[in-house]
Amino acid sequence: MGFEIIDVSGDVGIRAEGNDLEEVFKNAARGLYSLITDIDKVRPLISRRIELKATEPDNLIVSFLNELIFIFDAYGFIGSRIDMESNLKDIFHPGQVKELWLKADIRGEDFDPVRHERRLLVKAATYHNLRFYKENDLWKVNIIFDI
Amino acid sequence: MPVEGLIRIDENRLEVPPTYKPGMRTNGIIFVDEELEKELEKESIEQVANVATLPGIVGSSLAMPDIHTGYGFAIGGVAAFDLKEGVISPGGVGYDINCGVRLLRSNLTKEEVLPKIKELVNTLYNEIPTGVGSKGKIKLDSSSEKELLKKGARWAVENGYGESEDLERIESGGCIEGADPSIISDKAYERGRAQQGTLGSGNHFLEVQYVDEIYDERAATELGLFKGQITVMIHTGSRGFGHQVCTDFLEIMERAARKYGIELPDKELACAPFNSPEAQDYLSAMRAAANYAWANRQCLMHWTKECFIKVFNISPKELGLTLIYDVAHNIAKIEEHVVNGKRLKLVVHRKGATRAFPPGHPELPEMYRKIGQPVIIPGDMGRYSYLLLGTNKAMQETFGSTCHGAGRLLSRHQAIKKAKGRSISREMEDRGIIVRSAGRETLAEEMSEAYKDVSNVVEVVHRAGISRKVARLHPIGVIKG
Fold first, then answer.
1. ipTM for this model
2. What pLDDT, in 10s, does the model give residues A78-123?
3. Which residue of B55, B179, B229, B268 pairs with B287 in a disulfide if CB–CB is 3.0 to 4.6 A?
4. Which of B73, B139, B412 to mutate: most A Cβ within 10 Å?
5. A 5-44 residues with CB below 8 A of B?
């Protein structure tokens, strides 16, 4: 799976994991989409490109997920496949990277309430208890969404 | 068990002493009795203490009895800041700017509505855009969206949604001056364009209710309420527009906090000095979002009225569906308050808290000057909601604020687990409540057991005197996202 839903009192969170941070970011995106609908039903028909920069991984992941929320909420685009180029693989070697960047291609389609299950309306990704950590050789992040 | 480090002041209040956490500039006061104290989350107490560390806080960092953990500020939090020394923080308002509630009265009785309640709920569900991915019936172009942001509910009335008499029965007249559309990001505009006139999802709802208990006959009569009467409650906010404004400004404010040397115990507490350009921009954008929300609730009320007229085949006059009041419970406002005998202009943040101004307050419309401001407290969909009035004690103790709702007891996940194998909609119907919802799991997440009993919350604010009970409202029909 690469992600799981975590329980928080008022809202909902996900834990995404991966061999490197780029994979964590991709799984976090799929985790977010799976809060909104069943992503197995989302066909990769159209593509959207996102390019972002930030100085810290916290800010980059929050901006990235908020961008996906924006594209869904404003244009009804829901994704299921994520391709990414970035310098995220390098960032836990201090001094190597001064600015983080990512370029993501999100493939999906227009949300159709008849065909796509309606799950949660996600308002935003938050910094609340946001944490990247390494466990059993895997990178993980916990991220909480405002519902 | 009493929470360690907190001091009980009296039956209804707990103090978070300034020694609770390093950096606190003042104490915290949480309005809870011993029962609700048992449900206090450690993290929410921490958040009350964190707010007390922010520069320029005036009085105590306050929390209402429906307190629970939020982002930055606790939900149920109230904090006032000095305009010279203090800050403004998007985390003190929340993502859903001007999330709020409006209450409508009617001339109909429960007996008249019950035979047609299913038809009414279905009609409301079909006419009012609800749930994830739903689109509004109002299409805004760029110039009409800008006008809406400046005018709020007045825009809705000018465009045929409701009557001009409605406006004085809305907090701030349904429009805060000083909204500047040029501050708003393209993204917020994009998100707001198709969502005006939509209910949303989560805990937002539209509910048909009846008055099942009256606690203050005189006030109820003044408000046009009687036992057995049908009322309607609408709970929603500024939708994606407000969420985007908050998201945009959290980034801006985080950079601003660093620039102005404000130490933040939590990124979600990002803030800037009140007089800084960043803070003033946020204030303008937040006001635009607040106006968006007031227009939204105004449009939803208009369609609600149309649904009633269609289902009951009566004239608007016979129906008499009019606004009692509309309150914001996620907002920051500039208000005058007396602190230690001095009259001060402050920026009051209410996040999951409702304004509760007393009788005689100049901000209240003429018809409520004698009794005080109506305060609307929604409960969960299976039990009841309350109508309260603002008091002088609220003015003295809580910057004219009180609670805003029930507060969750179970997480969404726990609620879904508990509802497994059950039909919540059938259970509700057995209890005489017809429910329609867009999301498959919404009803499980929003079932009664997932919430605290709102009457416990209301009892605390009533006993503490920061508002007083007028009536209790019982649901018979609910639509949800």
1. 0.93
2. 999 999 999 998 766 555 667 999 999 999 999 999 999 999 999 9
3. B179
4. B412
5. 5, 7-12, 36-37
Q: Which of B329, B404, B462, B474 is catalytic?
A: B404
Nearest residue on chain B to A5, judged by CA atoms? Answer: B413
| Residue ranges of chain B whose pLDDT lies below 70 | 1
pTM (global) more than 0.95: yes
**Hey, what domains does chain A have and what are their CATH numbers?**
3-146 (3.55.10.10)
Instruction: Indicate the pLDDT class of residue A7, thresholds 50, 70 and 90.
Output: confident
Subunit contact A128:B75, Cβ cutoff 8 A: no
pLDDT for res B76: 97
Of A10, A118, A128, the CB nearest to B408: A10
Q: Which residues of B touch A119 (CB under 8 A)?
A: 132, 439-441
Kindly list the structural domains of chain B, giving each domain's residue range(s) and its CATH number in brackets, ordered by start. Answer: 7-480 (3.90.1860.10)
- Rounded to the nearest angstrom, the minimum Cα separation between B407 and chain A is 9
Measured between alpha carbons, how far is B91 from B88 in angstroms, rounded to an integer? 9
Residue A147, chain B, CB below 8 Å: the answer is yes
**A120 in contact with B at a CB cutoff of 8 Å?**
yes
